Amino acid sequence: MQEKLTYNVFCQQVAAKTPLIFITTDNESRTEALITRAALQGIKGMPGPMEWNCTTGFPGIDGTVDPQQALRYVLEHEGHGIFLFKDMTWFWEDNPFLQRMLKDFAAIKRQATKVMVFVAAEISIPATLREDFLILHHALPDREEIHAHLQTKRQKDTFLKDLLDDDDKLAALTVAGQGLDIADIDRALRLARVAKDMTLERVNNNLLQVKQQILNKSGIMEFVDNDVKSNQVGGLQALKAWMAKRESAFGLKELNSGRNLPKGVLMMGISGCGKSLFVKAIADRWRLPLIRLDMATVYSGAYGSPESSLRKACQTAEALSPCVLWIDEIEAGISSQGFKAEGGAASRVLGYFLTWMQEKRHPVFVAATANAIELLPAEVLRKGRFDEIFYVTLPGVVEREDIFRIHLKKRSFDPEKFNVSILSHSSKGFSGAEIEQAVASASFEAMADKREMEQKDLTEAISSTVPLSVTMAEQIKKIEAWAFKRAVPASGVETAKSPVAPEPEEGVSQV
User: DSSP 3-state helix, strand, coil percentages of the chain (rounded to 5)?
Assistant: First the structure.
């Protein structure tokens, strides 16, 4: 259990007289409760912690609102003590007096156990002090902690006994609560208590909305409101078969046991052929929240250094597990060219990402897409990072028929009134996105003339479209040449050697 591990490590460090400890946390109150519990229960002879903030100083101690006077009070304090500083990170960066006092405090050998603990959402220790600090991370509660908390509340609360009347419902609420603080879960349960006709499904939806708000506030990742259904994807037989074989690994019982968790897939290929769509279909079929990581945001520096942003994103994804982590156009953030050009930051980002992919133990399914996979370093493509690399090519004639039918239905047209076979053959070399746009253009033309859409509208829309397979023929051939015998065809058949080659019997489609 993560909470117990953090508690034990903190107690050991205090007992070993570690003078300066920095704890990163997203919930000050929860971390303060852990420190208080450790002081009173885990460390013999230790009084409760004294808390300092910039508005009140140490309660009852005059003159300690000033940070320098607060540190002086700690230095002069006799006996054991844990001193918790909540706001010091706002003052010490450009203050040599505070930095010198802390360095001197760390260097003093003393009989009493006297420890200063600093808490903040992110690590913000002055460079001159980093060697003097021990850094801990108080993570969000994991599945075991949430399960134990809900089980305890269920035993004492009649309302929860009725709402969670069997262990499967308790497990379902545990999964829904992952990625949230205990306080957020309790708040959702209080709302359920006062609402009429509250069901477990509505409680789970409330928790999902809280997660969405938290992610949106973080800025690094986006909670995707997924409206794609798994049956809206045509073709991709090999990908579908791969997913079906592993669905049991994301079943609720398997999630609770933590066994057989897929690492993820990397899908490369031509733009507009369904890579991003299939990521959404995976999340829908497995009924998992979909989180999108924007590598451009990671490198923007708006939320800290690139490596710290990526670390926070991965930790958040683990806290929200089970989930699907969607990294779109991964080559934009992790590429061999960027690795060589940028050096420091790019190499650290790459190193952390590779280690995390290899060592992660949480049920986070990483679905990455790439248009130019040849730009990725060889270390990313090595077996063990992703379970499989799939190549998504242009749809074949059969898949194009399916795409036309699906998009006609989405726009409330009866596919039987159109000759989709002719449309499919006349759209040779089209991607799924281009077929979708052709249907949309034909529909708009008919609406502008205030009449029903006809076959000729679709034919004209197709004939007026220059597909990507023509405008980017050389680049597509290069992608296909790389993928040959390096990646598994997502359709389950050999990919076409070029977009102008004879039609394969089957291909890949986007809908």
Answer: 55, 15, 35
